[in-house]
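Researcher: Good morning. I'm working through a list of sequences from a screen, and I'd like to move beyond sequence-only analysis. For each chain I'm collecting a predicted structure so we can compare shapes side by side. This is the next one on the list. No need for commentary yet; just the structure.
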Amino acid sequence: MVTLAVLIVGASLLASLPYWLPSAVLGLRMRIFTWINGEEGMAIPGKLVDAAQLKRLYSHPAANGRSRGAALSDLFWYWLSPGAHLHQEHLEPGEEYEEVARTTRRILSLPRKPAEDWVARSVTDVVGRATQSVNVVRLRDLMMPIWAEFYYRLVFCEPCPIGARDLIVGNANDVVTALKCCSLRHMERRYRLTRFLVDRVESGAVPHDLPAHLSAREQALYLQGTFFNTAVVQMSEAMAHLLLALAKHPHVQDRLASNLNDEGYLDRVIDETLRLYPLFGIAHRITSSEIRLDERTIVPRGTVLCFSYPAYHRSGFVDPDVFDPDRWKTVSPRDANYIPFGIATNRPCPAQGLAPVTMRAAAREMLKRFEFHSSASHTRSIPNRGPCLLVPRARQFGSAPRRLLLFALRLRDRWEDVWRSIVQLALGTYMVWDARRLRLCERYFEAQALTVREPGPQPMAAPSEPGGDYRCPHTNGRVRV
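Model: Good morning. Structure tokens for this chain:
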């Protein structure tokens, strides 16, 4: 009897693990991270600054420090290496940042028609052969080669070779998997892309004027960080969230699929997706001087401001945790607590114009080809990479096998949460400790204080003129689609 009771208790405990262990491990991981990394930062919205004051503080001219003086920066630089010191989002304010930002805006200034056509071609290249059979996929993995092709074409104004696409995907996947604490960094994968980009820059293959104060290697690292890390990762995650939301809300998916030209409804679906699952978790800034918000609220100089997008996007909404695209019929994104691309006056996402256009195009292309079904969990960090059942629209697939597959998918996802939470605890703790040990950001600024850098323009070879179907909007050269 005792043995039987022990077996029953043990089996019950084992069966209950997916329901409590991941959240318990997450709480422990956060406490360990704080213990290693130290208490730092003012959470916003929070006790001192609420949601109503967030935009005012975020847009204040003195909330302009980016990396120097924040221990948190060591961790971000660790995850984004190599070249984190040249990443646009982590440069300190000044002429170097302004030149890099101008370059990024210029490269991203793609007109709508070629942007939509390039997305359509990238989707066809990547998923064209997957339209005949039913597949269980990870949406982030499915979308990443699409955005690798698109951003390669944007940067080089030519089609993306398979080998280059593999390098970009390998680099981006390594960055985002380490960010999720699901794997350690594999720097050689990242350096392979760096070497490829250095060769391209040195051969004059980039048909854009890159920041002149940077060396060829630095220009390559700038391209890698801005376009082949951040852009590819963020757009892959944005589309994974969008398609997973559609998979879990069939009525929304059916409405969109029945009228792919209903751009107003598609925009509301995208807005609701980015509200519930913002691409940025925490954005931090360091105050360069004291900020007085009102009579009682004074933010000291040197404060690390930690703006929480998920918390802000849930404040001021009715039923904030409900996925409801139609809420945007009566609520204006401009007036709501909604900043999917940041604040216009404080380093907004440079792709804020291009990203919605390309998301709409990608969504239409995917909905033309597939139905999406999922029973997996959907969280902002999406560490499961968006498990989803992909059913070609041209194929008949019965409800009974679909329900069986969704049951298996849910069971697998639950148990993956258990082992993944333990992996994240172990690897995340190590990486936070290792980042504090290496002090990449802190040591960089220490060296900068001791070294006077003399910028000098780097001669760039004239870019070759590619051939094809469109005139490159940046170079006026012809570009193949």
